[in-house]
Amino acid sequence: MPHRTLPFLPARTQVAIGAALALLMLCTRGQHFASVHALPSASWAVFFLAGALLRTRWMFAGLFALASLLDWGSYAAGTISDWCLSPAYWALLPAYGTLWLAGRLYARLHRDEISTIPRLALVLIGAAFVAYLISGGCYYAFSGHYTPTFAGFPPRIAQYYPRALGTLAGYVGTAFALVAAVHAAAARHAATPQQARA
């Protein structure tokens, strides 16, 4: 029977993944000094991957603190306006929490076989939709930049959700392809001494 692998990564590997996720957020979020303008923000993927690949719960708080520090630091430096730092900003906390919990859920569903891809796709579609309802809905309703109506929000979902889902899926797919490659290389390395002894 295929085994679950995502919750059982070695501690050293988890530290490396945590550092890589923080670096990815640092390089792609907003207009701060390290922004890589050719890449879309990886923030949603960072929280999903942290939930899926890292055991420690404090990483969620650490990543949210990093995201907030980057946003408010950019605002203080004058590289972004207060357009995004509205009263609705703190809706990002439950939105990112949704993505992190979805990563936790997927870690339990993952199998080391190709049939796991539809499971991942379904989790990403659902998590991205809920996260957008929270973040986009709260921004539309409470940012003070719009006159919110029930009829006005569905067109925003149609406009912004596919892009958010595509970005999330792109980063997560790339990350899991790397994880699979590392696992395959580790399996080959472990098998080599046994073959040599045989």
Which secondary structure elements does this structure contain, and how are they paired or packed?
Elements: H1 11-28, H2 43-53, H3 58-77, H4 92-109, H5 116-142, H6 153-197
Helix pairs in contact: 1-2, 1-3, 2-3, 2-4, 2-6, 4-5, 5-6
Query: What is the mean pLDDT?
Result: 85
Ends distance: 26 Å
What's the helix count?
6
* Helical fraction: over 70%
Query: What characterizes the major β-sheet?
Result: none
Spans where pLDDT lies below 50 across 5 or more residues:
32-37
Rg (CA only): 19 Å
Number of strands: 0
The level 1 CATH classification is: Mainly Alpha
How many domains, in number, for the residues? 1
Structural class: mainly alpha
CATH topology, by name, is Arp2/3 complex 21 kDa subunit ARPC3
Query: What is the percentage of strand-forming residues?
Result: under 5%
Q: What sequence of helices (H) and strands (E) makes up the elements?
A: HHHHHH
What is the CATH architecture annotation?
Orthogonal Bundle
General shape: globular
Structure description:
With 198 residues, the protein is mainly alpha-helical. It has a single domain (6-197), classed as Orthogonal Bundle (Arp2/3 complex 21 kDa subunit ARPC3). 70% of the residues lie in helices and 0% in strands. It has helices at 11-28, 43-53, 58-77, 92-109, 116-142, 153-197. Helix 2 (43-53) packs antiparallel against helix 3. The protein is globular and about 65 Å long. Residues 32-37 have low confidence and may be disordered.
